[in-house]
Amino acid sequence: MSVVKDDVELVLPFKAEYVSIARLASAGVANRVGFDIEVIEDIKVAVSEVCNKLISTGSQVASSYKITFRIGKGELDIIFDCPDKSLKCIFDEKNDELSLSIINALMDKVEFCSEKDFLLAMSKSIEEND
Amino acid sequence: MASELIFREKQNSDLIDVAISGEVDIYTSQQLKDKLYSLIDQNDSDIRLDFKDLTYIDSTGLGILVGALKKAREKDRNIKISNLRGNIHKLFLITGLDKLFLIE
Prior knowledge:
The complex is a heterodimer of chains A (about 130) and B (about 100). Chain A has helices at about 20-35, 35-55, 95-105; strands spanning about 5-15, 65-70, 75-80, 110, 120-125. With about 130 residues, chain A is an alpha+beta fold.
C-alpha cells in the first residue's frame, strides 16, 4: 500500500534576497514533520546551500526555480526543479567543497545528479532514537 | 527577517572585538566581507569575532571568513571566533574550519 505524502511547493526568483524565504518555509515544513530544532536548522542550511548554487549559476531561460517539500510520516523529501534543465549536476567537487561537505553531512540522502526529471533531491528522516 | 547585518566594534589594546548580529547568507555576505576586509586594511590588530547573536551562516559566509583569515595572516595577524552557537559550531566541525580558526 503506497503512503500518501503531502507536497508543499515554493517558487522563488533567481535572486539572493529570497533565499531566506526558502529557509523559513523549510523550517515550517520540517517542524510539521516533527524534526527537533537541531535538525530543522540542518535542513535550513542544506536547502540554502542548494538555493545559493542555483542562484550563483543562474539561468538564461528561466526566471524562477521550484522547491517541493514532500511531507511523509517522519520523513521529508526536498526536490529542486526548474524548466532550465542545464542546471542539473551543477555542483563541482573542486569548487563547491564546503557546500558539498555541508549538504552531505546534514541530509540523509542527496541525489545531486538525478536521472529523473528534476534537478536535485534530498531527504531526511526522523531517526528512531529522536 | 532582517537583511542587514549589525556590527558592533570595540577597539582594545591589541585586539578589535567585533560582534555580529543577524544572518550571513548569500544576500548579506558582501556586508561581512566589506567589514572584515576594511578592518584588516585599516588596523594592525588581531580581530575577534563574537558570534553570540549570529543566527545563521552557510558556506557563503564561511568562505568569506576563510578569505579574510588568509588576508589577515598575510599581514601576520589572526582572526579568532568566540561564542559560536551550537548549530554554527557544527558547520565549522563538518567543514574542518575548527582546525583553521582559533575558536574560543
